[in-house]
Design a protein that fits this description.
heterodimer; A: alpha+beta; Enolase-like, domain 1; 30% helix; B: alpha+beta; Aldehyde Oxidoreductase, domain 3; Aldehyde Oxidoreductase, domain 4; 7-stranded mixed β-sheet; 5-stranded mixed β-sheet; 18 helices; 25% strand; CO_DH_flav_C (chain A)
Chain lengths: 349, 743
C-alpha cells in the first residue's frame, strides 16, 4: 500500500477544497472498495480526505413528495428507512441484495455509486487493463502491458452491451458492479453534486458512462466534484416492482445479470414502466424505447418478450459471458411477471 | 466409558471464541521484524534484472532478500523434502533466477513494521524474460504419463493391475455407459492465511510459531534445509485456523522467515496475503473417462476408469482417484488407470478428500447414468453390485463395512422409497425438484504416533502429543479418550498438542488423527494406569495386595476393586506418596500390521440429496441432504457431526461453485480472492442431516475408530449431479455446475 496523508474536514466546501489541493487525493467514506483497491495497488492516493464528518447523513422528505438521500447515509440505513421501504421498496430490495450486512453497514450511498468494476484484470496489476493503464488525472496505477485482459481471457462476469467505441473497437468489457445504481436508474434518480464552481444536478442516467475509447473514466463527474445527495422523484412504484438478481451463489456475489422493474398499472394494463439492467454493461442499462413497448399493453408474457429483445438489442458475448444474453432476456420476462404479481415476487427467483 | 461417544462440547471452544487462542501470526515476540513476499508476475522464464534500491531506500526497511543475495542453504534436494513431499525436486524459494510458476516468491522485504514492508515490496523492481507457458491440462491429454510413485505410495496406492479384459467385456456388454468428467483446480483457502513467526533466541535458538498440520514436519524441514541441529529449533502450533491439507507441507513463508531471522539474527514474521494463498499447492485439474458395461439384470461386467491429472514440472504429485471404483464395484473385467502431466504450475497438494471427491464424482455419476439405462433404481443397482471384498487389494475382506446399512438408513431418513424415477417428475412452483444419491468411501488409516500422560501432584491428568487440531476437534476427543482410560472427570484432564517438545505424531491428514493419536493417547494412559496401580499396591495398607491389574478399574479419579468398590485408592493419594513428583508414562502406538494386512480398511457413506432447479435461470439449490456414515466408533457425535456437515457443505461447494480459474494465456489464477473464488454462503446451505450407522470394528485400531474428516464430502458432488439430472433430465459432467451449464 502506498503511503498517504489524511484529512478529515467537517464542511463540504472544505472537503472540495482539499480535493482540489495536492494531486492524487481521494475521498473516503465507508472505504469498502477503496481500501481493497489500495491494498492491491490499483488505487494509490497520496491523500485521503475522510468525508464521514460532513453533514450529509440524513434522509429528508421533499415538498414534491420525493426523498433526498444524503450521500453519507449508509446503505443499510437507507434500505431499512421506513420511507424508503414504503415508497421505494425497489431500492430497498436492490441494496439488500448486495454485499453483506457488514459491508452495507459501512458503505455509503455516495460511495456505492463510485465503486469500481470487479473485473479480475482490473484488480490484478500484473495483468493488462485499459481501465488501469489509460492514465487519469487523479490516479496513477498499475504496471504491465496495456490492452484488455478480459477480451479473449476469462470474462464470465463481463459486459455484453455498450462495449464498442464509436469506431467499433472494444477497449474494455468491464461492468459496473452496483445494485443500488440499477434501482436508482429505474427510479430516475437525480444526483446532487457540488464542486469549486458550485452545485449542480446530474440525472442518474448521465452519471455513469460507457467505456468507449476512454475506459479509464467510470463516470462523468469532474475530478474535483463531490456527490452530496441522491434525489428520488415522487414516483417510487411501491405497488409493482421487483429487483431480480442472478448470480453464482445466493448472497455475497455480484450480479451476473440483474433486473430492476417498476410498473404502474391500471387493472391489467401497464400505464408506466421502468426497467434497468445490472451486470451487463459499464453502466446500469436502460432503454426507454423498450419500456414504451409495454405502455397500454396487458401484463402478459407475450408482451414481455419483445421488451427483453429490445433491451438486449446489439448484445455481444465474449465467450464465457455469452450466456448472459439469454439469461438477461429470461430475467427480464420473469422480473416483469414478479413485479405485477406480489405472490410471485415473494416467491423470488 | 463415560465420555467416549458423548457429545462433549469443544474443550478449546472458550479459548477460541474469546480470542485467547493464538495463531501463528499472533505471537508477538519482542523486537519483531516483518517480512512481505514479492511474487512473480510471470509463469515461466527468468529474472533478468532485480532492483531493490528503491525498497531499501525506505526508512525502516531492514533488508531485501533475493536469489542474488540469499544466505546459503542446503545443497541437495533431499534436504528440502518434507514428510509429504512427492517424488521429485522440491521447490526452493529464492534459489535462482528461474521462474517455474506464476506467483513464485522472488524477493522478501523485511522491515520494522508490516506496513513498511508491504509498501517497500511494491517498490522492488523485477524485470523478467518470459517464455511461453503450458498450464492447460485439457490441451495435453495425449501426453500424459505414469507418475513416479515414490514412498508416499504406501498411503496413495497406484491403480491395481487390470482384471480380465475390460475392453472386450465393454464391447460385448448389452448395456453401455461412457462419459468424460472434468474438474478444475481448487485452492484450500483456510480462513487463517499462512504465516510463520520465528523468534530468534539466545545462541540462535529458533522458536517457530508456524501454521502447519504437523510441527514435526516443519521442524524436520527447517533443520535439514538450513543444516541446524534438532536441539536448536522448536516449532509450536497450538491452533490452526483451518488447513484442509494446505498445511501438510511446509510453505515458503516458513523457509523465508527462518532464512531472514538467521541472517538478521532477529525475530521475523512472514505472513502471506489472501492473493498469495493461490501461490502454492492446490487440488489439481483432472479429466476422467469412465466406461461401464452391464448385463440387463444390472450386473456390472466391465469397468474402465481412467484419470489424467496435472502436476508441476518439478514434482510428481499423485492422488488416489480411480482405486475407489474398484473398492466399491466387483466387476470381473476392470481397468483402472492414473496418469499425470507436468505443467508450469506449482505442485498440487492434498486437499480435503484428495482424489476421492474427484474419482467418486465420476464413477458415482456414471453408475447413476447406467442405472437409468438399465431401468433400475440407482440404489438397487448399487445393492446388486455390492461387494464384501476388495479386489484392488488381493480380494481381502473389509475390516467392517456397513454400507448396506448406510443405504438403508439414509434412504429411510430421506424418504427415497417414494421417489418417482422419471426425470422432471417433481415440481415446486416454477422450480424442478430432483433427488439423487451416491456412495462414499474413504480410507481408515492408522500410522505410528507417540503420546505422554502425566498425573500431576494435584491429581490432574496432563496428556501431550505433537499432533495438530486444524479445527476438527482433536483437543476434545483426545481429552475424552484420556479421561475415560483413567476414569477421571473430564475437567481434571488437559490435552496439549502442536509443539515439537512433545512426543512426535504424524502430520494431521487422511482422516487418521483420531485413530493414530487416539491410539497413542490410549496407550500412554494405559501405561500410566499400570504404573499407578503398581504404586497403589505398594502403599501402606494397600487394599490391592495380591490383586491383578485386571481385577481393578479406574473410576471417578480412583482405582477400585471390581468386585468390591469399597476397596479403593484415589489417584491423588497415589501420586501424593510419590515424594512430591508427578507420575509420567510415554507410549508409542503402532498399527497391528497382522490385522491390517489381512483386511481392507475403509469408512463408507451414502448421500441423498434434493435439489431445486430454476431451469430458466439454471440456478441450483441443495434444499435437503442426508448423509449416512459408517465410520467405526464415533468418539464424539457433536464434533463428528460437525465434520460431516462441513464435508457436505464442501461437497455442495465442489459440485456447484468452487474453482480456481486460470487464464492459460498467462498461467495466472484470475479469481484469486474470496469475493470471486466462490464457496457457499449461509444462504446456500439448507437442511443437512447426518446419520451415524453403528459399526463395530476390532481390526482398524484398539479404539475401533475410522476418522470422519473426509467421508462426509466424497459422495456429495455425484449425488448433487444425479439429483440435477433427476430434476431436469440433463447430465452435466463438468464441475462446478454453474447456472450457465444448466439453463
Amino acid at each position: 500500500m502506498h503511503p498517504f496523508s489524511y484529512a478529515r474536514p467537517t464542511e463540504v466546501t472544505e472537503a472540495v477544497h482539499e480535493l482540489a489541493g495536492p494531486a492524487r487525493a481521494k475521498f473516503i467514506a465507508g472505504g469498502t472498495n477503496l481500501l481493497d483497491l489500495m491494498k492491491v495497488n490499483v488505487e494509490q492516493p497520496n491523500r485521503l480526505i475522510d468525508i464521514n464528518r460532513l453533514p450529509l447523513n440524513t434522509i429528508d422528505e421533499l415538498d414534491n413528495g420525493g426523498l433526498r438521500l444524503g450521500a453519507l447515509v449508509t446503505n443499510a440505513d437507507t434500505a431499512y428507512h421506513p420511507l424508503v421501504e414504503q415508497r421505494y421498496p425497489l431500492l430497498s430490495q436492490a441494496i439488500l441484495s448486495a454485499a453483506s450486512a457488514q459491508l452495507r453497514n459501512m458503505a455509503t450511498n455516495g460511495g456505492n455509486l463510485f465503486q469500481r468494476t470487479r473485473c479480475y484484470y482490473f484488480y490484478d496489476t500484473a495483468m493488462p487493463c485499459n481501465k488501469r493503464q489509460m492514465h487519469h488525472s487523479d490516479q496513477i496505477t498499475g504496471t504491465g502491458p496495456a490492452g484488455c485482459g478480459a477480451l479473449g481471457g476469462y470474462n464470465r462476469i463481463h459486459a455484453i452491451l455498450g462495449t464498442e467505441a464509436s469506431d467499433g473497437t472494444v477497449h474494455c468489457i468491464a461492468t459496473h458492479p452496483s445494485d443500488m445504481a440499477v434501482a436508482l436508474t429505474a427510479l430516475d434518480a437525480t444526483i446532487h453534486v457540488t464542486g469549486p464552481n458550485g452545485d449542480r444536478t446530474v440525472p442518474i442516467g448521465n452519471l455513469h458512462r460507457l467505456p468507449g475509447s476512454e475506459p479509464q473514466f467510470d463516470h462523468t463527474l469532474r475530478p474535483d466534484e463531490l456527490v452530496t445527495a441522491i434525489e428520488l422523484p415522487p414516483q417510487g412504484f411501491p405497488d409493482h416492482y421487483t429487483y431480480l438478481k442472478l448470480r453464482d451463489r445466493s448472497s455475497y456475489a455480484f450480479a451476473l445479470v440483474s433486473v430492476a422493474v417498476g410498473l404502474e398499472m391500471d387493472g391489467d394494463v401497464v400505464t408506466n414502466a421502468r426497467l434497468a439492467l445490472g451486470g451487463v454493461a459499464h453502466k446500469p442499462w436502460r432503454k426507454p424505447e423498450a419500456e414504451q413497448l409495454l405502455i397500454g399493453r396487458t401484463a402478459t408474457r407475450e408482451h414481455f418478450q419483445p421488451v427483453a429483445e429490445a433491451l438486449l438489442e446489439g448484445a455481444v458475448g465474449y465467450g464465457h459471458n455469452t450466456f448472459k444474453i439469454d439469461l438477461a432476456k429470461r430475467a427480464i420476462v420473469r422480473a416483469l411477471g414478479m413485479a405485477i404479481n406480489k405472490e410471485k415476487r415473494e416467491e423470488g427467483e | 466409558m463415560k465420555y467416549i461417544g458423548e457429545p462433549i462440547t469443544r474443550v478449546d471452544g472458550h479459548e477460541k471464541v474469546t480470542g485467547q487462542a493464538k495463531y501463528a501470526a499472533e505471537f508477538n515476540v519482542p523486537d519483531l521484524a516483518y517480512g512481505v513476499v514479492v511474487s512473480s508476475t510471470i509463469t515461466k522464464g527468468r529474472i533478468i534484472r532485480l532492483d531493490t534500491s528503491r525498497a531499501l531506500a525506505v526508512n525502516g526497511v531492514i533488508a531485501v532478500f533475493t536469489h542474488e543475495n540469499r544466505p546459503k542453504t542446503a545443497w541437495f534436494d533431499v534436504s528440502y523434502k518434507d514428510q509429504d513431499a512427492p517424488p521429485g525436486s522440491p521447490f526452493r524459494p529464492l534459489y535462482d533466477n528461474e521462474i517455474k510458476y506464476n506467483g513464485q516468491p522472488v524477493a522478501l522485504v523485511v522491515a520494522e513494521t508490516f506496513e513498511l514492508a508491504r509498501y517497500a515490496a511494491m517498490l522492488v523492481d523485477v524485470a523478467y524474460e518470459a517464455t511461453p507457458c503450458d498450464t492447460d491440462l485439457l490441451k495435453h491429454l495425449d501426453a500424459v504419463r505414469d507418475p513416479n510413485p515414490g514412498v508416499m505410495n504406501i498411503f496413495k496406492p497406484l491403480p491395481p493391475k487390470p482384471r480380465g479384459d475390460a475392453d472386450q467385456a465393454f464391447a460385448e456388454a448389452p448395456v453401455q455407459q461412457s462419459a468424460q468428467y472434468i474438474h478444475g483446480m481448487q485452492h484450500h483457502n483456510p480462513m487463517e492465511m499462512f504465516a510463520s513467526t520465528v523468534e530468534y533466541g539466545k545462541n540462535g535458538f529458533l522458536t517457530i510459531y508456524d501454521k502447519t498440520q504437523g510441527v514435526t514436519n516443519s521442524l524436520l524441514y527447517v533443520t535439514q534445509a538450513f543444516n541446524i541441529p534438532f536441539n536448536q529449533v522448536r516449532v509450536v502450533s497450538p491452533y490452526v485456523g483451518g488447513a484442509f491439507g494446505s498445511g501438510l507441507r511446509p510453505q515458503y513463508q516458513l523457509f523465508l522467515a527462518v532464512m531472514a531471522a538467521r541472517d538478521l539474527k532477529r525475530s521475523v514474521r512472514v505472513s502471506l496475503t489472501r492473493q498469495q494463498m493461490w501461490s502454492f499447492g492446490h487440488r489439481p485439474a483432472t479429466v476422467q473417462n469412465v466406461r461401464l458395461g452391464a448385463r440387463p439384470d444390472g450386473t456390472l461386467t466391465s469397468i474402465t476408469h481412467e484419470a489424467m491429472a496435472a502436476t508441476s514440472q518439478f514434482e510428481d504429485y499423485m492422488e488416489t482417484v480411480v482405486n475407489w471404483t474398484g473398492k466399491l464395484y466387483p466387476s470381473e473385467n476392470a481397468t483402472l488407470r492414473y496418469k499425470i502431466k507436468s505443467l508450469d504450475l506449482y505442485t498440487p497438494l492434498d486437499m480435503r478428500a484428495p482424489g476421492g471427491v474427484t474419482g467418486l464424482h465420476a464413477i458415482e455419476s456414471a453408475v447413476d447414468e447406467l442405472a437409468y439405462k438399465l431401468g433400475m433404481d440407482p440404489l438397487d443397482f448399487r445393492l446388486k453390485n455390492y461387494t464384501e471384498r476388495d479386489w484392488t487389494e488381493k480380494d481381502k475382506p473389509f475390516s467392517s463395512k456397513e454400507l448396506r446399512e448406510c443405504f438403508r438408513q439414509g434412504a429411510e431418513r430421506f424418504g427415497w422409497a417414494t421417489r418417482n424415477p422419471e426425470p422432471r417428475s417433481m415440481q415446486r412452483g416454477h422450480n424442478l425438484i430432483g433427488w439423487g444419491m451416491a456412495t462414499g468411501i474413504w480410507d481408515a488409516a492408522q500410522v505410528p504416533a507417540r503420546a505422554e500422560a502425566t498425573l500431576t501432584v494435584n491429581g490432574k491428568l496432563r496428556v501431550r502429543s505433537a499432533t495438530a487440531d486444524i479445527g476438527t476437534g482433536t483437543y476434545t476427543i483426545m481429552t475424552q479418550i484420556a479421561a475415560d482410560t483413567l476414569g477421571m472427570p473430564i475437567d481434571d484432564v488437559v490435552f496439549r498438542l502442536g509443539d515439537t517438545t512433545m512426543p512426535p505424531a504424524p502430520i494431521q491428514g487422511g482422516s487418521w488423527t483420531a485413530s493414530t493419536v487416539g491410539s497413542a493417547v490410549k496407550s500412554a494412559c494405559d501405561a500410566l494406569a499400570k504404573t499407578l496401580f503398581r504404586m497403589a499396591k505398594r502403599l501402606p495398607k494397600s487394599p490391592f495386595v495380591g490383586v491383578g491389574f485386571d481385577d481393578v478399574q479406574f473410576i471417578d479419579g480412583a482405582i477400585q476393586l471390581r468386585q468390591n468398590p469399597s476397596k479403593r485408592v484415589s489417584l491423588l493419594e497415589v501420586v501424593s506418596r510419590n515424594r512430591g513428583r508427578a507420575v509420567t508414562e510415554t507410549a508409542t502406538s503402532i498399527p497391528n500390521l497382522i490385522k491390517h494386512n489381512s483386511h481392507s480398511r475403509n469408512a463408507h457413506a451414502a448421500a441423498f440429496v434434493e435439489v431445486q432447479v430454476d431451469e430458466e435461470f439454471g440456478t441450483v439449490h441443495v434444499t435437503r441432504a442426508v448423509t449416512a456414515v459408517a465410520a467405526g466408533r464415533i468418539l464424539n457425535p457433536r464434533t463428528a457431526r460437525s465434520q460431516i456437515i462441513g464435508g457436505m457443505v464442501w461437497g455442495i461447494s465442489h459440485a456447484l461453485q468452487e474453482e480456481s480459474v486460470m487464464d492459460h494465456r498467462y498461467g495466472r489464477f484470475m479469481n484469486h480472492d474470496l469475493a470471486e473464488y466462490h464457496i457457499p454462503v449461509c444462504a446456500d446451505i439448507h437442511d443437512l442431516d447426518v446419520v451415524f450407522v453403528e459399526e463395530n470394528d476390532t481390526i482398524v485400531n484398539p479404539l475401533g475408530v475410522k476418522g470422519v474428516g473426509e467421508i462426509g464430502l466424497v459422495a456429495m458432488p455425484a449425488a448433487i449431479a444425479n439429483a440435477i439430472f433427476h430434476a431436469t433430465g440433463k447430465r452435466i459432467y463438468d464441475l462446478p455446475i454453474q447456472l450457465d451449464k444448466v439453463m
